[in-house]
Structures are given as structure tokens and as C-alpha cells.
Design a protein that fits this description.
Oligomer: single chain
Largest sheet: none
Number of strands: 0
Helix content: over 70%
Order of helices and strands: HHHHHHH
Number of domains: 1
Distance between the termini: 21 Å
Shape: globular
Number of helices: 7
Length: 115
């Protein structure tokens, strides 16, 4: 699920975890607390994904959280997918090139665009 979100929201590799988490939070929207929760959840899930992908040891306390994290990511990804599918503009955007996606998130960051 992290890879699916990465393919939608990432346009380069610099500060990948931060950018991906920020973009997911902005795209999902909500009040400040909801956006911060999405941001923190995405960062945590992506960190675990990276540990697994790169063969690092995962602490038992973190491993126990993986089922709940997976469920939360599934809910998040479903909400994002439905938002994109239900909007012809967003469907066109995400079917386009990275420059368009980059510009969209820059406008979203500065309050020029809305989700």
C-alpha cells in the first residue's frame, strides 16, 4: 500500500518520507489535527515499509502494530482512490506527468488549490 501511495504522490526521491506524508495528509484534507494524524501515520508506515524492504530488524513492539497499520493504510488508500476516481480533474492529473502533479501539490501547499 505504501508503494501505491508512493507511485501516486512522489515525483522525486529527495525527502521522500516527508514529502509523501505531507502530500497524503494535504490530499486527504480535514482539520489540522486530522491532517497531522494522517501525516504521522504515513511516516510511521513508510518507516516500517523501508525497514522490511531493506531487510532491517523490526522490533517486536512495532511488528505487533503492523496489522493495525495495514488496516489504516488500506482505509487511507481507498479514500484516496475514490477521491481520484470520482473527480475527472484529479483522474486526469494523476494520469499525467510528474510536472503537473508537482505543480498541483505546490498549489495545494500554498492554499491555491483544493482537493
Amino acid at each position: 500500500m505504501c508503494s501505491a501511495l508512493e507511485s501516486l504522490f512522489s515525483t522525486d526521491t529527495s525527502e521522500l518520507t516527508h514529502r509523501l506524508s505531507e502530500r497524503v495528509a494535504m490530499f486527504l484534507g480535514g482539520d489540522g489535527e486530522a491532517m497531522e494524524k494522517s501525516y504521522q501515520m504515513m511516516k510511521k508506515c513508510y518507516a516500517v515499509r523501508s525497514q522490511i524492504t531493506h531487510g532491517s530488524h523490526i522490533k517486536d513492539s512495532v511488528a505487533e502494530q503492523i496489522p493495525d497499520m495495514s488496516f489504516d493504510m488500506m482505509v487511507m488508500l481507498r479514500e484516496i482512490a475514490l477521491k481520484i476516481i470520482d473527480s475527472p480533474e484529479l483522474s486526469k492529473l494523476f494520469d499525467g506527468d510528474n510536472d503537473g502533479i508537482e505543480a498541483y501539490f505546490r498549489r495545494l501547499l500554498f492554499g491555491i488549490a483544493r482537493t
